[in-house]
Amino acid sequence: MSKFVAPPPGSGLDFESSPAYQRVIQNFEAAAAVLNLDPNTAARLRRPERIVIVSVPTRMDDGSVKVFTGYRVQHNDSLGPYKGGIRYHPEVDVGEVCALAMQMTWKCAVMGLPLGGAKGGVRVAPLRLSYGEAQNLTRRYTAEISNIIGPEVDIPAPDMGTNERTMAWIMDTYSARVGKFCPEVVTGKPVDVGGSVLRAEATGHGLVYTTTYAAEEIGLKLEGASVVLHGFGNVGTHAALAFSRRGARVIAVADVSGGYVNEKGIDVRKFVDYASKNRTLEGVDGADKVEGDSVLTIPCDVLAPAATGHVITVENAAKIRCKVLAEGANGPTMPDADPILERNGVTIIPDIVCNAGGVTVSYFEWVQGGMNFFWREDEIDSRLQQLLRGGYERSREFARRHKTPIRTAALAVGIERVDRTMRLRGLYA
After folding, report:
1. Most buried one in 215, 319, 324, 343, CB count within 10 A?
2. Given 83, 119, 189, 323, which residue is catalytic?
3. How far is CA 123 from CA 49, 71, 167, 264, in A?
4. To 5 degrees, how large is the angle CA 224–CA 328–CA 296?
5. Rounded distance, CA 188 to CA 326, Å?
6. CA-CA distances (angstroms) from residue 157 to 77, 218, 369?
7. In what order do the strands lie in the sheet with 65-76?
8. Which domain holds residue 58?
């Protein structure tokens, strides 16, 4: 099949030369080769369907106006409306957002959801914004992209640096622009304005559920197992609490302030409460402080990178000493690190399965909002486990049948479903 070719200089498609995008393309090519994907379909799927880059002028507390850059990328909507989070991060760029949008397409597909893939972002340091500045920025960003989002078109959600409060502002701004209350335009909202129970916990819980499935396969008992979490935001904190409830021992965590290690096990509830109050773990008692990335190489049963991408590389992969690698973050493992981990016997749960709990409960929230009928927590938890188990088992079965790495298998399952749907719908030209 045809291979990725960088665009000529001056083509305006510089996202294709982005390292983040090329890493996603590298994984895509591996899965497409296993599927013997038609080159015409592959050509369509390598590029997003739409890229929007906007200026986001924002009134700051001192009266000045700063102009930030915002993005919304829509990769593919063959299966249904675009779906994907919005992240606030000082280093986000168009290549990263394009890469994440493509990943969302495969994630929705492998989970069997009737949704496509999108992603958004604003290049900003969210921890440096006051409450008022964050709201001003969010409302202006929403206004700039409001003509391409909507409950039947593109449904944003929280991601790194954003939360349910951010989604409430987006929903309110969009509702004002269309002249009616429209809670289903975003997911991940507070329950009081149409959000779903368990949405905030969903990604972290999904990480633990899929880890449980992997542990069953290799004969690992989670009770008493040692866990390291690289990332202690929404995903990491809820995963830590869920692991703790299962009797696992969280021996190290890391956030933007550094890494914190206690081989006897940290007090998870204390750490979660401290991070919630102080926004970081800086100054917390009960653990030794180390460099943040150094926790990745601590010997443990379960390692969960749950923050930024590209933290497991060819340089440190041989030092990773875990039995299960549960990818709570998007793209935490570089493609050339995978073979090293596999040779060392690490069981990998790829990100598009491991962290799919968030988009799955987002789908539930979207459905509930459309019906104006909301499910109980136990119903949502049961449905979540059912869909995650299905995505995990489809990926594992494909890997066994085709004797291919699990990451390639999971991507292939998603790509195959999108390809099948595109063929049924045909090409409109």
Report:
1. 324
2. 119
3. 22, 9, 17, 39
4. 65
5. 23
6. 16, 34, 14
7. 50-59, 65-76, 116-123, 82-89, 154-158
8. 48-181
The reported pLDDT for the residue numbered 2 is 40
All residues at 6 or more sequence positions from 158 whose CB lies less than 8 Å from its CB, including other chains: 85, 86, 164, 166, 167, 188, 234
Q: Residue written as tokens 């992603």?
A: 119
**Averaged confidence pLDDT in the chain:** 95
| Tokens found for residue 51 | 């890229």
Contacts with 419 (C-beta within 8 Å, 6 or more apart), sequence order: 35, 37, 38, 41, 45
Q: Which amino acid is at 223?
A: E
**Does residue 49 contact residue 77 with C-beta atoms inside 8 Å?**
yes
Q: What is the pLDDT of residues 215-225, one digit of tens each?
A: 999 999 999 99
Based on the residue annotation, tell me whether 319 is a catalytic residue of this protein: no
> CB neighbours (10 Å) of residue 8?
7
Backbone angles phi, psi at 418, to 5 degrees: -65, -45
For range 89-95, the mean pLDDT: 94
What strands lie across the sheet with 324-326, from one edge to the other? 288-290, 258-261, 249-255, 226-230, 302-305, 324-326, 347-349
For 117, which DSSP code?
A: E
Cα–Cα distance for residue pair 55/256, rounded to 1 Å: 27
CA distance linking residue 245 with residue 251, whole number of Å: 15
pLDDT digits (tens, 9 = 90+) for 191-212: 999 999 999 999 999 999 999 9
At 429, is the pLDDT very low, low, confident or very high (cuts 50, 70, 90)?
low
| DSSP string across 26-70 | HHHHHHHHHHT--HHHHHHHHS-SEEEEEEEEEE-TTS-EEEEEE
- Whether residue 207 is found in the same domain as residue 350: yes
Segment 150-163 shows an average pLDDT of 96
Q: Is the pLDDT of residue 17 over 90?
A: no
pLDDT band of 138, cuts 50, 70, 90:
very high
Per-residue model confidence (pLDDT) at position 4: 41
Please check the confidence at residue 244 and state whether its pLDDT lies above 90.
Answer: yes
CA–CA–CA angle 263, 226, 228 (5° rounding): 80
Instruction: Tell me if 34 is assigned to some domain.
Output: yes
Residues 87, 42 share a domain: no
The count of domains in the chain is 3
